[in-house]
Structures are given as structure tokens and as C-alpha cells.
Amino acid sequence: MRALVYHGPGQRAWEEVPDPEITDEGDVIVRVDATTICGTDLHILAGDVPEVRPGRILGHEAVGTVDEVGDNVHRLTPGDRVLVSCISACGTCQFCREGRYGQCVEGGGWVLGHRIDGTQAEYVRVPYADTSTYRIPEGAKDEEILMLADILPTGYEVGVLAGGVRPGDVVAVVGAGPVGLSAITCARLFSPSHVIAIDLSDARLKAAREFGADVTINDSTEDAASVIKDLTGRLGADVAIEAVGTPATFELAVKLARPGGRIANIGVHGQPALLHLEEQWARDITITTGLVDASATPTLMRLVQTGQLDAGRFVTHRFPMDDFELAYDVFGDAATNGALKVVLHREEEKEEA
Ligand SMILES: NC(=O)c1ccc[n+]([C@@H]2O[C@H](COP(=O)([O-])OP(=O)(O)OC[C@H]3O[C@@H](n4cnc5c(N)ncnc54)[C@H](O)[C@@H]3O)[C@@H](O)[C@H]2O)c1
Ligand SMILES: [Zn+2]
Ligand SMILES: [Zn+2]
After folding, report:
1. Average confidence score pLDDT of the chain
2. Ligand nearest to C-alpha 94
3. Which of 154, 174, 179 has most ligand 1 atoms within 8 Å of its beta carbon, as the pocket-test mutant?
């Protein structure tokens, strides 16, 4: 089969690799019908996630068709159509029992495209398949469901829920990539008074308005802290969500929160970021960090099904899988071309827009 293989910082190739095989009786092999690229894949390619070793097939998001099942798989049979979540869950360890699937200690958590081969491939081995996949509801579109593999649960759980967004809150989101936009659109579910998007790219800020931000700030030309102070009577944001993953944006998010405010870090960081405790110690702030659990996937699936979340509008570009390298170039240059999510379809699977 062919797959997108990481060959060390800055190096990737769509190339021929051996087919995946069932190695544990809880595994399934899924034929990938649609997959996509995450900002985290860009972090991996930048060398920010050193535990990803050269030779690894990238990708942790997919919609596909079950091709083969291990002897201990009870819920799935070949031909079933499933969402492959970015988080795998053994379902029985202490963390899984608490719904903290991201922290699974039995070989689950974020493993796909990280510690084991991932979904940017024609086929993928999914461990703990019974508890790591979701059936695709009748009539749902692959592309919409694909957005539930990572970005929507991440923005919702690690941004909005961890940040404790409540009605009337002023919510500032630093970074309006697909994950920041997910946080913006999910924050809207809680009736905030303002959602402020901050990004360096005007194309992304335009998208932020469409996803529910009522104030946008380009922090290459405007001072986000003073715009938000003016908007909030000098107080600052109730909740600041960091969705970039750089030291500068973490420090900005901390600065944007009001005294007593909450800062929810979503970004994957490859460098140490400074917490200015000498400025912050008396401000009663709460900082949360987290890896997505994807425990909210069933909830989000319902919201997509009932039209309360528009998942389809994340998809801006579509490619056949053989154009994977081009798709990376486009996603990597999103600031100029307006790309949000690029979807790679199996040749026969191209969907209507
Ligand atoms: N915690 C988790 O479980 C989890 C899950 C998925 C993704 N992530 C992380 O979330 C982050 C966002 O993912 P994405 O797919 O949206 O990435 P992305 O690269 O598409 O988007 C990042 C955005 O940040 C903007 N940006 C860069 N520097 C900025 C600055 N100084 N000020 C304001 N904006 C700036 C970019 O213009 C871009 O729009 C990444 O760090 C990703 O690794 C975390
Ligand atoms: Zn991701
Ligand atoms: Zn577990």
C-alpha cells in the first residue's frame, strides 16, 4: 500500500510500504476512505515531537471501512463504516474508566501517527478497535464525521470545557487554525458575550468570523491585550484559549485573561514557554493543559447530526490520496491560501462538496 511516511524533521514522502497486519486480537484493519492533516503533523515535521521516529506513517484522523478484525473484536465486522478517533482507548485501565482516554496506560491514548503507524495511508491498524472507533450514523457525510476525529473534540474538551466557558463570558482564542476555529464554534454553544479571535493571518481571521467570532485581531499589526482591555472595561478575557503551540502565544494567552480568569492551553509545544509568575502570582488565574480524550465524540456527533455544529465547513480543499504531498504543501501554506482542513479521499470515494 501507499502511505505518508515521516523521514525526520522537514522530510516526508508518499511512498510504498508494507500493508499493516493484525498484531493483537483487539485490532482491526481499516481501509481509509478519507483522512486529513492536523497542525500537530506540522509540529512533528518541525521536529517538535521527537518521540515520532523516522519511518513512522503519520496521521491520526480517518473515516474508513473495516477490512479485517482480530479474534477479540466484538462490535465490528468487515464492511462496517467507522470513524477512527485520534485517541485509542483500552477501555479498562484506570484512566479509561475515568473517561480520560488520552491518558490510557495500556497502549492507548494518542498513539496513531505518533507511537504506531497512522491513518495517512490506504490502510491502518487500529488497536482496541471496539473502544477506539465510532460507527458512522446513517446518512452522515464522511467529511463531517472526519472532523470529529480530532479538531472538534479538541477545541471542545481541551479549550471550551477545560476553560469552563459559561454564558456571558468573554472568550479570547489565540490561533484560528482548525483547532482554534473548533474552540470558537463550540464556545458559541454556551452563549458567550464575545468571542475574540487572534491570528497573524487575515484569511484565518475571516474564517474565524464565519465560525462565530465577533471580534478579530491580527496581532502582527494590533495589540491584542489593549483591544481586549478596551472591550472589557480594562478587565481582560474570562477565558483565554491557546490554540497555536508557541512560547509567544502561550504568554499572550496568559496576558489576555482577567484576574480570576482561566487559560486553557491546547497547543502542542516543542519549546519551553515562560510563565511570568512574577506578574501572575497574585492574579488568581487557573491554567489548564491537556491532551484530547475524545470522550465528547458522541455528544459532538449528535450536535453535528442535528445541525447545531456545522462540521462540513471546515473542509476547504479535497485531494486524491496520491496528491498527499501537495496537500501538505497547501495545508502548510494556509496563511496565504485560506486552507482549513484538507481532505484526502480514496480515489473512488470523492464526495460532493
Ligand atoms: N492538545 C491536544 O490534544 C491537541 C489536539 C490537536 C491539535 N493540537 C494542537 O493545536 C494547535 C492548533 O492546531 P491547528 O490544526 O489549528 O494548527 P494550525 O497550524 O492550522 O493553526 C495554527 C494557527 O496559529 C496561527 N498563529 C501562529 N503564530 C501566531 C501568533 N504569534 N499569534 C496568533 N496566531 C498565530 C497561525 O496563523 C494558524 O492560523 C497545534 O499546536 C496542534 O498541535 C493539540
Ligand atoms: Zn491532531
Ligand atoms: Zn486505557
Report:
1. 96
2. 3
3. 179
Identify the nearest ligand to the CA of 331 by its number.
1
Distance 79 CA to ligand 3 centre (A): 26
Residues in Cβ contact with 34 at an 8 Å cutoff, skipping those fewer than 6 apart: 62, 63, 64, 142, 143, 146, 343, 344, 345, 346, 349, 351
- Residue 296 predicted with pLDDT over 60: yes
In angstroms, what CA-CA distances link 73 with 31, 129, 185, 186, 298? 17, 7, 35, 33, 20
SS (H, E, C) the chain: CEEEEECCCCCEEEEECCCCCCCCCCCEEEEEEEEECCHHHHHHHCCCCCCCCCCCECCCCEEEEEEEECCCCCCCCCCCEEEECCCECCCCCHHHHCCCHHHCCCCCECCECCCECCCCECEEEECCHHHHEEECCCCCCHHHHHCCCCHHHHHHHHHHHCCCCCCCCEEEEECCCHHHHHHHHHHHHHCCCEEEEEECCHHHHHHHHHCCCCEEEECCCCCHHHHHHHHCCCCCEEEEEECCCCHHHHHHHHHHEEEEEEEEECCCCCCCCCCCHHHHCCCCCEEECCCCCCCCHHHHHHHHHCCCCCCHHHEEEEEEHHHHHHHHHHHHCHHHHCCCEEEEECHHHCCCC
Categorize the per-residue pLDDT at 335 as very low, low, confident or very high, splitting at 50, 70 and 90.
confident
Considering only CA atoms, which residue is closest to atom 5 of ligand 1? 154
For ligand 1, say whether the CB of 86 is within 6 Å of any of its atoms.
Answer: no
* Cα(270)–Cα(309) distance, integer angstroms: 31
153 lines ligand 1 (CB under 6 A): no
Give me 217's grid cell.
485581531
Q: Cα Rg for the chain, rounded, in angstroms? A: 20
Ligand 1 in reach of 249 Cβ (< 6 A): yes
Q: Is 127 in the pocket of ligand 1 (CB under 6 A)?
A: no
Q: If you average pLDDT over residues 199-213, what whole number do you get?
A: 97
Q: What is the pLDDT of residues 90-120, one digit of tens each?
A: 999 999 999 999 999 999 999 999 999 999 9
